[in-house]
Design goal:
It contains 5 helices and no strands. By secondary structure, it is mainly alpha-helical. The chain folds into 2 domains: 58 residues, no CATH class; 45 residues. Helix 2 packs antiparallel against helix 3, helix 3 packs across helix 5 and helix 4 runs antiparallel to helix 5.
Length: 119
């Protein structure tokens, strides 16, 4: 039997800087299964930035992944988000629980984004 580490509800890792290497390293620690998604998206975003001659797509990429990492740094918050995402994907949109799940997703993501933007 393998033992899972005990976690006290605090952050698993410090909040990373919003540079690609720092975000990639942090994601590798808190959600390694999403590294391929991040890399693929990075390639698309850098192409968009080059084509539009704008850093806007890169800034949005950094904000998005910093927000994802902010959620995943806190296992309890990540579990709440993933449960709400599952509910939103599986419940009928007429079910009041579907709207509650959507509200939970929005609240978690807004709070994480605010932490990243202000922290």
């Amino acid at each position: 039997m393998t033992t899972q580490p005990v976690h006290d509800g605090g952050a698993l890792i410090p909040r990373p800087e919003k540079t690609f290497p720092a975000l990639r390293a942090a994601l590798a620690q808190v959600a390694p299964s999403r590294l391929a998604e991040m890399t693929s998206e990075r390639d698309t975003v850098f192409t968009m930035a080059t084509q539009s001659n704008s850093f806007g797509p890169i800034a949005m990429f950094q904000l998005k992944w910093a927000t994802v990492i902010e959620v995943e740094r806190f296992p309890d918050v990540a579990r709440r988000l993933h449960a709400a995402e599952h509910a939103a994907q599986t419940l009928d949109k007429e079910d009041p629980k579907w709207q509650a799940a959507m509200d939970e997703i929005r609240e978690i993501m807004q709070a994480a984004r605010a932490q990243v933007a202000n922290g």
